[in-house]
Amino acid sequence: MDISACPYHSKLSKEFKPFDLTDPFPVYKKAREEEPIFFSEELGYWVVTRYADIKEIFGNWQVFTSENAQTPPKPVPDSVRKIMVEGGIVGLSGLSGRIPPDHTRIRRIVTMAFTPKRLRKLEPDIRALAIEMIEKFEQNNHAELVKELVYDLPAFVIFMLLGVPKEEVTQVKAWAISRMMLTFSETTEEEQLFHANQVVKYWQYCKDMVTRRKEQLGDDFPSDLVRLQQEGYEINDQEIAAMCYNQLFAGHETTTSLMGNGIRELLKYRENWEKLCANPALIPGAIEEILRFNPSVITWRRRAAEEATVGGVTFPKGANLLLIMGSGNRDESVFPNGETLDIERTNAKEHLSFGSGIHYCLGAPLAKLEFKIVLEELTKRFPQLQLKPNQTFEFAFNTSFRAPIALEVEW
């Protein structure tokens, strides 16, 4: 099918609501069955929903570049772009928006700093922090878990990794939210102006962080990158700051979403919670299945650098693509009974929730470690945990990050 001639006849374009993530899965299923690649008139993106097609696109970085991964889904007004350009935000990327050879060079250096040894060193502190937060509500017989646990815990962990003082956490978290709203949501020009100014402050903070580490090294991730730079590895100050800029965002927002989604799904299908309480050894596999069934990052983007054909559809050069990992992860051709949460599923690890290929998420082990610790502590302390009845779950209005804004539980 040649889509360059007349791409606006998709039956699913009107049904697909790219910013409303309340319950997108029925439309995803319909797309896989009826029109697995279709054009969204609202976004101006081609939407890809099948597992094989998404994996093929992720695997071909030469043709399907990541240069639009951090681009707002709709063109920003000139007034907003001016703030971003003057603030040094346009074209800024850590790894997700880079391609080789820069991507290969920087990822190799970052991998040398983001090591299993550093994660193991963090584990006791993560557990102590989780226990401290849980003990604050343990005697209450109820909690709002987003507010009281899963919103702040990943932020404290990633800020610990990056050496952000506790007194600065609230401000940095607020800047990170502005970045999400500017990059992945649909907002008014007035809102975009506010978020753009916030993001500029966020970027300046990251640059200042590198400057401070060059004056005095510490025991944290940016210090490790500065040390490698001083040892002769090819990474400049701007690139180190960009890694901090991205980690301070991706390292906690996505993990907050993973935990919120995961606990909700385990309690919604409560036999799975009971299995984990009875056998904690199932927790690592359950996390993989949660990542498959309800990922925190539900979509990602690519752009066709040249004309290319995938799944029988020919994309013209310059076409923007929205890859629906939340759909591919339920593809029945890969995951039998894909619409069912099964924490003992044997191939759950084949999910696409951390991407695939050269841009596979570096932070995946940390996110899974944090969630493992939280589930171990919650299942041990609250075997009777259940969702508070009759609550309505709301989700932030954006294209990519899906998690409940609040999660009321009781025991």
UniProtKB/TrEMBL annotation:
- InterPro entries attached here? Cyt_P450 (IPR001128), Cyt_P450_B (IPR002397), Cyt_P450_CS (IPR017972), Cyt_P450_sf (IPR036396)
Keyword check for DNA-binding, yes or no: no
| Name of the protein in question | Cytochrome P450
Keyword DNA-binding in the entry? The reply is: no
The record's section on PROSITE patterns has:
CYTOCHROME_P450
Please list every transmembrane segment annotated in the UniProt record, as residue ranges: none
User: What family name appears in the similarity comment?
Assistant: Belongs to the cytochrome P450 family.
Q: Which PANTHER family match?
A: P450, PUTATIVE (EUROFUNG)-RELATED (PTHR46696:SF6)
Q: Which UniProt keywords apply?
A: Heme, Iron, Metal-binding, Monooxygenase, Oxidoreductase
Q: Name one GO molecular function term.
A: iron ion binding
- Origin species: Runella defluvii
